[in-house]
Specification:
Helix content is 0%, strand content 41%. By secondary structure, the protein is mostly beta strands. It is globular, with a radius of gyration of 11 Å. The mean pLDDT is 91.
Length: 70
C-alpha cells in the first residue's frame, strides 16, 4: 500500500477522507502479525493536503481492516 493513499476502514464515516500516513510491523496492543497502517482522518476533499503523519488525528489499523479505494 502506498503512503498518502485514500482508504476505507471499519469505522469510516460519510463525509470524511481516510489517508494512510505511516506503516509499522507491530503494535503493543495487538498480537497479530503486521503490517499496521496509521490511518488519518481528514474532512472530505482535504485528504490531498496531508503531507505528514499527525498522530493525534488517527490510529493504527491491521492491514486486514484497511480497504484501498480504486
Amino acid at each position: 500500500m502506498k503512503m498518502f493513499e485514500q482508504v476505507r476502514v471499519l469505522d469510516s464515516r460519510k463525509g470524511n477522507d481516510y489517508i494512510v500516513t505511516a506503516e509499522i510491523n507491530q503494535v503493543a496492543y495487538d498480537d497479530r502479525k503486521g503490517p499496521y497502517y496509521f490511518v488519518q482522518k481528514a474532512e472530505s476533499g482535504k485528504g490531498r493536503k496531508i503531507k505528514k503523519a499527525d498522530f493525534k488525528k488517527g490510529k493504527f489499523y491491521h492491514y486486514s481492516e484497511v480497504m484501498v479505494l480504486s
